[in-house]
Amino acid sequence: MTQKMSPLKTEVLRKFVLPLIDSYKHNDTASATIIKESMMRAYENSTIANPLRDILKTIEQQRTKPDMRIINLNLDEAQAIKDERFEVAARIRDEIRRLGGKL
């Protein structure tokens, strides 16, 4: 049974994460900068800004082949925070650290 992605996860992946990775794969740093700035503008005052910043750090450090497990966990953490499920968010954060994703 496949679990449906949350609208937040779908939006962030489609609008920001995948285009950013694609920009780096094509060595288009100008587009990458625009995408990163757009993402942070969209969420900078949000309760989910920190997990999204962590995604940007992961992509920045790993550029063309970032660890999608960590990115997906960061998105799950953002969704848990948005839903005010803070215990779940803390468990996800612990899993990210275990995988080496806290940068």
Walk me through this protein's architecture.
The protein has 103 residues and is mostly helical. It has one domain (7-98). It is 74% helix and 0% strand. The chain contains 5 helices and no strands. Helix 1 (7-25) runs antiparallel to helix 2, helix 3 (49-62) runs antiparallel to helix 4 (68-82) and helix 4 runs antiparallel to helix 5 (86-98).
Could you give a short description of this structure?
This protein has 103 residues and is mainly α. It contains five helices and no strands.
Helix content: over 70%
Total of DSSP H or I helical runs spanning 4+ residues: 5
N-to-C SSE series? HHHHH
Question: How many distinct folded domains?
Answer: 1
Features:
103 residues; globular; mainly alpha; 74% helix; 5 helices
Strand and helix layout:
Layout: H1 7-25, H2 29-43, H3 49-62, H4 68-82, H5 86-98
Helix pairs in contact: 1-2, 2-3, 3-4, 4-5
